[in-house]
Amino acid sequence: MKRSLLLLALAGTLSLTACGSGDKQDTPRPRNGEFTVGSYEDNDTAAAESADTENSDATATDYKQSEPKLIDTKMLVYSCDMSIDVLDFDKSLDRIHELISSYNGFIESEVYSDGGSSSQWVYSDDEKWKSLSAVIRVPSASYDSFCSDIEEVGDLRRKNASVENLSTEYSDLKTTLAIYEAKEQRYLDLLESVKNESDAIQYENELTDIQIQIATLKTRMNTIENDVAYSYINLSVNEVRKYTDKPVVKKTDTFGQRLKNTASETWSSFLEFLEKLLFVVIRVLPYLLLFGIIAFIIVKLAKLISKLAEKYRAKHPKPVRPAPVYMQAPPMYPAPQQMPVQNRAPVQGPPPPPKEKAAPNVDKADKKDDKDA
Fold first, then answer.
1. Do 146 and 99 meet the contact criterion of CB atoms below 8 Å apart?
2. Which InterPro entries does the entry mention (predicted)?
């Protein structure tokens, strides 16, 4: 009782002080269950607050003993990867489309392949293996039922299911959006009351950035809402055939039968080779004709140019220039080598005077001339 009277007196004093000063104080917002005693503008409010403080200890004790907050599961995104094998691909595909329509779902994307080669040759149906990959969206309320029905379409080979909780992200986005919208409203109010043009331009730029952020937040929130509303099923459908053992080749064939089979297979292979060769020639023939025409034109032009060049050379022969005459250098003889002193012959004196020759016999010479005549 004394505590209540003390609190009432304190509240009255604070109220009189606030009225005398003419100032107003903001009331703090309670957070996380905590109670805060502060200044109030109204005495009745202070009195009510003081009356409630008697049970504050019990309230704090109850708050401490409260259970932890449970995880929010409002924004769950379900997804599943499934792979099934089917014997009758077309019939199974029709069944899948019926299930999608019955569950009010839709195909977001799909890739179909007939299993044929990318070449230009035609293959029979026995050589093709059809397949389908699709992303299916169904309402989350029908997610489990749809997956169960899909499993019955064929032989389930693989399944991987997962759940993503986006509640926290969505809550943060929602709070951030509220903050940006309040900020947007403040800038709109400022823009209406502003008179300076430079300030108006600045407010418009800030307002544009805020509106862009708001649009981004709303886009992400819409994406989360759509993902929560419609679950993902990544489905792969593959065509298969029943396995049959190949017949065992009997070894009772005679030599003549094996020879006949070998000759028949060889002849068939040879005919197939000729057929493919014929097709290749037919495909290449237009290109060969084109290259042949181009080569023929090039050869003709080369011959024509050669003939014209010969005629031109015949009409305009080149003048023959005389060969330049070069003077021959005198022969070079080796220089005489001086013999060493040891190998020299002894020096002789002057040679003796030559002997006088006898006068020729005139008679003998005349006789000789007569004989010759």
1. yes
2. DUF4349
